[in-house]
Amino acid sequence: MSARAFGIELYGYTDAPTLLEEIQLAERLGFESVWLGDSQLIWRDLYVMLGAAAATTSRVALATGVTNPVTRHPAVTASAMMTMQELTRSRTILGVGVGFTSLRMMGQAPVTRAELRRFVAYVRALCNGEAVPGEGGEIRLAFGKRGGCPPVVIPASGPKMLRLAGEIGDGVMLQSVVFGGDVLATMQGCVRAGREASGRADAPFRTYITIPCAVSHDRAAALAAVKAHVAVALLKPQWPVSEVSREAGAAVRAVYDAYEHMSPSANAKFAQAVPDAAVTEFALAGTPAECIARSEELFAGGVDEITVRPYGVNGESRLAAMEAFARDVMQPLRR
């Protein structure tokens, strides 16, 4: 794996054939991992797409980015993960969090940290062939096997979730990182505290950061391309932000629509609500030189893999955005 590793997170607001084409392109471009979102009312189905990706790729890691403990029962998740492990020859990653749009849009609340902890323990046990308590007695996965569970990665932005990721995860996906100051170091300190508290400080662990991305020699266009995504980070910041971002957050909350979650179709709506100064606090966006410098800053800060959420500039496709990032940022950093 490259010392400067990059992944890509894709949301299924495109049609399924296009989404599969994007996954295949990610492998050809040299990304280490592809993460697919799981929100049943707004995106194409996670496991249908992962199965298709498993059958049509050979190298790239395929990850849930991320699933949740409610719409996916632990037995269903364990079965899906072990099936994916067979199809991919163990290049699967289980990303799982407390739930956001997948639950909110059905009138349900995110699960608690305790419930997420139990879910991870159940899935691990089932994947490893162990019996776990069920409603009518013990249950087990018939084709589970010791050591079969894929790495578990927990997305986190606030201190308590970051600590939990360190306690129960094989990795953490840092989210909504605020650039400037010592936020990245503080977040990693929370993760380390969780790892030390659980006695797992020396166990293998990987730190990812997921971040909206657009690269172009037209800086203003690149910043505009990610505003729908930055708007989500402004809904409820977990760390101190600038006065500009605080004011933008109030404007975003007034117009946010979950059916347009992370979709570029919402950029026009947020064009005025999210100023450029707020974008630079949360995104990997701008000219190639700016994106390279910010990537180097993240790697120097201890991030193992930068997972970009690509957005096309001036109405370009996500395929074009992926190619631009690989050409103008990823490849120069690997020379």
Description:
This protein is of the alpha/beta class. The chain is 46% helix and 16% strand. The protein contains 14 helices and 11 strands. The protein has helices at residues 16-29, 46-56, 74-88, 101-104, 113-127, 159-168, 183-197, 219-225, 227-235, 243-255, 267-270, 276-282, 288-300, 318-334, and strands spanning 5-10, 33-36, 61-64, 92-95, 132-134, 137-139, 152-156, 171-174, 206-215, 284-286, 305-310. The strands form 2 sheets. An 8-stranded parallel beta barrel has the order 1-2-3-4-7-8-9-11, surrounded by 7 helices. A two-stranded antiparallel ribbon has the order 5-6. The longest helix is centred in the C-terminal third of the chain and has 17 residues, at 318-334. It is globular and about 60 Å long.
List descriptors.
TIM Barrel; 14 helices; 46% helix; 335 residues; 2 domains; alpha/beta
Q: What's the layout of helices and strands?
A:
Layout: E1 5-10, H1 16-29, E2 33-36, H2 46-56, E3 61-64, H3 74-88, E4 92-95, H4 101-104, H5 113-127, E5 132-134, E6 137-139, E7 152-156, H6 159-168, E8 171-174, H7 183-197, E9 206-215, H8 219-225, H9 227-235, H10 243-255, H11 267-270, H12 276-282, E10 284-286, H13 288-300, E11 305-310, H14 318-334
Parallel strand pairs: 1-2, 1-11, 2-3, 3-4, 4-7, 7-8, 8-9, 9-10, 9-11
Antiparallel strand pairs: 5-6
